[in-house]
Structures are given as C-alpha cells and as structure tokens.
Amino acid sequence: MTVFIFTLLALILGAVYNYQKKNIPLIENLIVFFIVSMLLMNGSTILWLNLNFIKVSVSIEKYIAFIICRNIVLPLLVLLWLNLNEIAKTFQRRVIIFIMVLLVSMGIEILQRLLGMLIYNKWNAIFSVMLFCANLIISFYVWKIVNKQERVKGVGSV
Amino acid sequence: MVRYDQSFDANEIFVLMVTVIGYLAVYLARKQFSFKMLLLCLLFGIYTGFFFDHTISLYPMNYYDVNEVSKFELFDFISYVMYGPFSYFFIYLWEKLQLQTRHAVAYILCWSLIGLLTEAVAHKVGIYHYREGFSIFYSFTFYPIVQLIWLNLYWKLKKEPAAN
After folding, report:
1. Which of A27, A155, B23, B119 has the highest CB neighbour count under 10 A?
2. Which residues 27-56 of B are in CB contact (within 8 Å) with A?
3. What is this structure's pTM?
C-alpha cells in the first residue's frame, strides 16, 4: 500500500513537472535535482543512523516507499517550486508558492508518519519545516550559481 | 553498529588516491565540455554512489557496509565523491572516441567490467564489507543499468541548446 501511494505520488508529480512551463533548462534542473537528492539522502541518514533523531521503518515495503519519497517525490517537488518561482512575476506570488510547497512537503511528511514509514525520536514538525525551508533556499542558490556560469567551449564541446 | 577497523590504512589511502588522481585527470581533460555539463557529469557519479550506498547498504536491506563502521562517516562521504570522475570519463571517452549508438552495448560492457574490477580492489582494501550473502556479482547488475540511464540522459541533453 505505501509503495503504491508513493509511486502514484511520484508519477503525478512527474507528470505535473513534465507538463509544467519551464524557464530553466533541463541541465540546470538535473543539477539541482542531484544536489537536492544528495542533501536529502545525507540529511536523512545522519538524522537516522548517526543522531538517532528519526527512525525509518524496518519493513521492506515501507522502506522502499521511503526511498521513493526521499529520492523522487521531494526532489521533484523542489524542481516544481524552482520552475514555478521563475515563472511567478510578483513577490507576493512567490511567497504564496513557497508556502504552498512547504505545506505539501509537510503533508507528505505527515503521510509518512501516519503510514508508519517514519517515526520521530528526538525530532518534531518544526525542525522538519526548517529543514524543508533550508532545502528550498539551498536549491535556489545552487541554481542561481549554476545559472550564472558562463560556457567554456572547447574542442568537441557538448 | 559494526566496527571493522579504526586505523588510517589501505581503504583511506585508496579513497584519497583515486579521488586525487581522478579529479586531477578531470581538470586536465575539462575543456571537452561546458562547465554545466562537466558539473552534471561529476554529480551523476557522486549521486549514483550516494543513491546505492544510502539505499541498499542501510537497514533493513543492509547488504554491505562502507569503510570502517556501519554508520555514516567522513570517509564514506569522500568515497562517494570518488565516483565523480568515473561518470565524467564515461561520457568523455564516448565523445572522444566518437562512438555511435550501435557501440553502446559493448561500451557499457567494458565500463561495467572496469567498475567490477575497481569494486574488487575496493573490497580487497576494505572499503566494502559485504553482508547477508551479497557479493560483487550482484553489483555487476547495477552497473549496466546506471550506465544506460546515464548514456540516455546524455543523448537527451546533447539535443538541448542550454547544455552546449
């Protein structure tokens, strides 16, 4: 059941991302995707194994659902936000989009807890909100830095 | 938590050596691609390392441990960074040798064997500690899949003006 829910969620987000109007080129989207995924993987492993702040379910099915969420759903959500943020014309809209994405992220985390995929030990929802905020901000600045880079063309440049 | 050894020995030296040599080689061959493409090439390798080690080497799967302890430590992080140059040279040589789509299977096979050989050395020096009946031959199934995804992604990016 958990794998089904999160696969469905990943597919829906993937479809939305696919149809979304994008001002950011694919290569920059991919760079942000990989960096965000790595941050999430490192963050969750450190919080789980090293600090014991959270606990991930020992059930294989729930663990796979957790992996889908960590490696596909949450990074895709960040990409959706980044592209929407670029399209949004006013500051007000950007703030609304930011809050919406934050709420969806929190909704996903609540769903993970309700389904028994994630258990808080020395952790709470406020820390999660802070972590999601940091994740969005980092992804934004990563994209800004990558976007500013000038092309260095060489022989057979691709 | 399982602790394999505590001293600075072969596994750390191997990781540092491969990382330094790999990135030096990338630096020398950096002009083949644009900065974004170079960054993406490196990130893909690092991401792959992170993905597998943070997925199948963690409980409840826990098929292997990386470096000295089953927890996440600094040298684990460096060992993932070590994978970056491999994915860079995978694409670099594809371009340099001007290979066509029909060469893809043989090319992937060659790189999978290189991956297997590197993993065998890494296992020997104590970077990987297999558990639960896992062996290097199971790893071999992952290499072609990852390389196929990477090559397809590269072909798709090649058509994009922003990657150029």
Report:
1. A27
2. 30-37, 39-40, 43-44, 46-47, 50-51, 54-55
3. 0.88
